[in-house]
């Protein structure tokens, strides 16, 4: 193709080998040319929502010919044991992790894994705790305290009552954010509440709870009327970080990184080493047992993977 036929575009949706791009303020389908797949390395799919790319206009539509350098990316290890990377979003300002009270129950293991991936990618993270209307006060306060003490920004919300939604709207305004979390936590319901007219489909998890469940099977970027963009992702069942070495995992738990300076060994893994300040803190309750448990869970998984590969 002639060079003058090349244009810059933004990927706004990815689904298998077909995607959509925003080019000249218009959203249109675009094919992924085979040569992009030739050098995809460890990536399952080499194109992700948020990518800046070069496209050419052909007789039957647009085609992506090159992915431009990314300023960051958010990814996980894909399903299976081949070690391939699934890129979830690129060029984002923050990761908004959405969890909830009620159904599905809050998972510290999943939340902590996503937080560690955000830290490893050097992308700021915010934790949104939705379905505040379903929360039991004692459990709610324990979860809020745990993550705020770890230095995480936490926003309690309810897409049913509207409580906390203004803070959520302010959080995503003017930024490029990716929303990520378990299926059924209410990501789509929150977006529909904040941005009238998006009309993202939801379905009922429980008629008594009036809770929405994500039905989309692809990642999609939406422009916000107040400014900025949000990348809505399908709900997940589990999350496996990628490219975090076992000996660096401790650096992505802020409270452990701080206390670890008092360990006997500078590179203490906070597992079975003697005179471990972090393990002592977990035993005395200085560090919540849930955070320490999720750390050990992921540490052992990474160690097993490293031994196998």
Describe the structure.
This protein has 309 residues and is α/β, with parallel strands linked by helices. β1 and β2 form a beta hairpin. It contains eight helices and 15 strands. 26% of the residues lie in helices and 28% in strands. The protein has three domains: 67 residues, Nucleic acid-binding proteins (OB fold (Dihydrolipoamide Acetyltransferase, E2P), Beta Barrel), CATH 2.40.50; 158 residues, P-loop containing nucleotide triphosphate hydrolases (Rossmann fold, 3-Layer(aba) Sandwich), CATH 3.40.50; 63 residues, Ribonucleotide Reductase Protein R1, domain 1.
Q: For this structure, what is the CATH class of the largest domain?
A: Alpha Beta
Report the C-alpha radius of gyration, rounded: 21 Å
Strand share of the residues? 25-35%
CATH superfamily of the largest domain: P-loop containing nucleotide triphosphate hydrolases
Sheet having the most strands: 5 strands, mixed, barrel
Q: Could you spell the SSE succession in H and E letters? A: EEEHEEEEEHEHEHEHEEEEHHH
Secondary structure class reads alpha/beta
Give the strand line-up of the largest sheet: 1-2-3-5-4
- Fold-level CATH name of the largest domain: Rossmann fold
Number of strands: 15
What is the overall pLDDT average?
Answer: 89
Q: Could you name the ranges where pLDDT drops below 50 across 5 or more consecutive residues?
A: 205-214
Helical fraction: 25-40%
Q: What is the approximate shape?
A: globular
CATH architecture assignment of the largest domain: 3-Layer(aba) Sandwich
Number of helices: 8
Spatial separation of the terminal alpha carbons: 42 Å
Instruction: Domain count, please report it.
Output: 3
């Amino acid at each position: 193709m002639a060079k003058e036929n090349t244009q810059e575009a933004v990927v706004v949706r990815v689904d298998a080998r077909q995607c959509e791009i925003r080019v000249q303020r218009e959203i249109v389908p675009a094919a992924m040319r085979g040569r992009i797949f030739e050098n995809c390395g460890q990536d399952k799919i080499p194109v992700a929502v948020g990518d800046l790319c070069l496209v050419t206009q052909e007789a039957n539509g647009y085609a992506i010919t090159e992915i431009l350098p990314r300023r960051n990316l958010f990814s996980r290890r894909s399903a299976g044991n081949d070690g391939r990377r699934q890129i979830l979003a690129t060029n984002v300002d923050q990761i908004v992790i959405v969890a909830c009270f009620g159904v599905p129950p809050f998972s510290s293991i999943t939340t902590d894994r996503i937080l560690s991936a955000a830290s490893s990618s050097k992308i700021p993270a915010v934790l949104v705790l939705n379905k505040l209307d379903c929360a039991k006060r004692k459990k709610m306060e324990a979860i809020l305290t745990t993550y705020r003490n770890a230095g995480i920004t936490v926003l309690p919300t309810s897409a049913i009552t509207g409580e906390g939604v203004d803070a959520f709207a302010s959080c995503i305004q003017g930024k490029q954010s990716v929303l990520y979390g378990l299926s059924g936590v209410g990501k789509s319901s929150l977006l529909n509440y904040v941005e009238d007219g998006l009309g993202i489909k939801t379905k009922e998890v429980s008629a008594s709870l009036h809770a929405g469940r994500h039905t989309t099977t692809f990642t999609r970027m939406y422009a916000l009327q107040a400014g900025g963009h949000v990348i809505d992702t399908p709900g997940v069942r589990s999350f496996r970080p990628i490219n975090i070495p076992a000996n660096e995992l401790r650096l992505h738990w802020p409270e452990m990184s701080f206390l670890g300076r008092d360990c006997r060994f500078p590179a203490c893994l906070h597992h079975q080493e003697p005179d471990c300040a972090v393990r002592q803190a977990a035993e005395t309750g200085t560090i919540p047992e849930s955070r320490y448990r999720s750390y050990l869970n992921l540490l052992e998984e990474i160690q097993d993977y490293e031994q196998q590969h």
